Amino acid sequence: MGRTQRIERELDLVPAIPARQPDASYAFLGVTPEVEDLAVLRAAVRFFHPEIRRERGFRFARKRFYRQMLQEHAAVRRRFAGGELASSVAAE
C-alpha cells in the first residue's frame, strides 16, 4: 500500500479571475473612449424607449443599467489609455 499522490499535481491550474467580457449593450451606445461620462449617460438614457423611461417600476433597473454603462466606459477608457484599443484603431 503506497501513499496517494497529491491531487494538486493532477489538476490544471485555472486562473483565479477570468477575463471579464465587455458588455454588449455598450457598443450600441455609439460613444468613443474620449467622450465625457455625461455624454455616455445621455446615450444610455436615449437607449431606452420613451415608454420604458416613463415606467416608474423600471427605475432601479434603469439606474443599474446606467451604472453598468458608466463602469464599462471607465474600463474602455483604461484599455484605451493603456494602448490596447489605440493599436487596434490605428490598424483599421
Describe, in plain words, how this protein is organized in 3D:
The protein has 92 residues and is an all-alpha fold. It has one domain (25-91). The chain has five helices and no strands. It has helices at 24-29, 37-47, 50-54, 59-82, 84-91. Helix 2 (37-47) crosses helix 4 (59-82). The model has no long low-confidence stretch (mean pLDDT 81).
- Strand residue content: under 5%
Rg computed from alpha carbons, rounded to a whole number of angstroms: 21 Å
What's the main sheet like? none
Q: How many helical elements?
A: 5
Structural class: mainly alpha
- Number of strand elements: 0
* Unreliable stretches covering 5 or more consecutive residues: none
Report how far apart the termini are.
64 Å
Mean pLDDT: 81
Q: Overall 3D geometry?
A: elongated
State the helicity in percent bands: 55-70%
* Element-level helix/strand string: HHHHH
Q: Any idea how many domains?
A: 1
